[in-house]
Amino acid sequence: MRQGPGELTPRQRLALDAAKLYYLGGMSQQAVAEALHLSRPHVSKLLASAREQRFVRTVVADPRESDQTLLTTLRDRYELTDLRLVVPVGRGPMDRRRALGTGAAEMLDSHATSDRDVVGFWWEGAGQVVLEAMVRMRLRPHALVQLDGAGPDGAPDAALSAFAARTDLPLHTLQEPILHRTVAARLEAETSPQTRRILTLQADCDIAVFDAGLPSASALSESPLVSEEERGLVAEQAVGRICGRFIDAEGRVVAPSLSQRVSGPTLSDLRRIKRTVLVACGTELIPVIRAALGNRYANHLVTDVETAEALAAYA
Questions:
Q1: Which of 207, 203, 311 is nearest to 266 (CA)?
Q2: Considering the domain 63-313, what is its CATH architecture?
Q3: Which element (helix H / strand E) includes 286?
Q4: Where, if anywhere, are coiled coils annotated (predicted)?
């Protein structure tokens, strides 16, 4: 929740004074210290505090991320409400994930994500880097609710548990496994008070953030609860997965019997959420990204420039 002008503490006011003199006035830290009658180390701490509280924002304007021809082409083709392009620093998987997470958090911030919004997130994949970027940017929605549940074996995700322990964000996790043995088992699990509370929050989502993945790149696809027939259908027909649902190139669910046993929002549910943010990059994901956007499972996209150019070139 953002503070009003009358709610600033004396230290915050001092941090603002120091930031204005240093960043806007072009003064050295020593000159700021003399002007405010403080020590230079104290000024350094005040400037760090100003950055942490977002009184100061550093903007790097990479022209590759604001290519208007590319942005307009994709917005028009897929009827996107918003599109954010990123250029990762480095070529490693974590470099791409970190850039995507920051881009998604910036997109949420630009839409004035407020303390009234319920944000749903799919933890596996991009969810972790998006939430960590939200913490850095001090975004604080009304609630953050997990969409994907625990692993197929029912064990809680260790990284999510660690994140929940160190953040003060209003985080609500789903303790039920993502995949159940039968539809009846899923329905039975959804009757518990705790699960009903999470499902109610999921239904109230103003925003959903999720990624796309290859059919094989998921713990779900390796679960012993997936039958050989279902595994064969996924291998033959699926171009990827979103929110635990394997889809073909036309955006249709592959292996419906498997999808019916998966916890979390269905593809139809995604269409009913006001803002659905797909966070994905990689030319190998072009078919599943196209299927997701073409079927309105996502109306916002965060991707890298290389993937965006490949999407634009796709006939």
A1: 203
A2: 3-Layer(aba) Sandwich (3.40)
A3: helix 286-294
A4: none
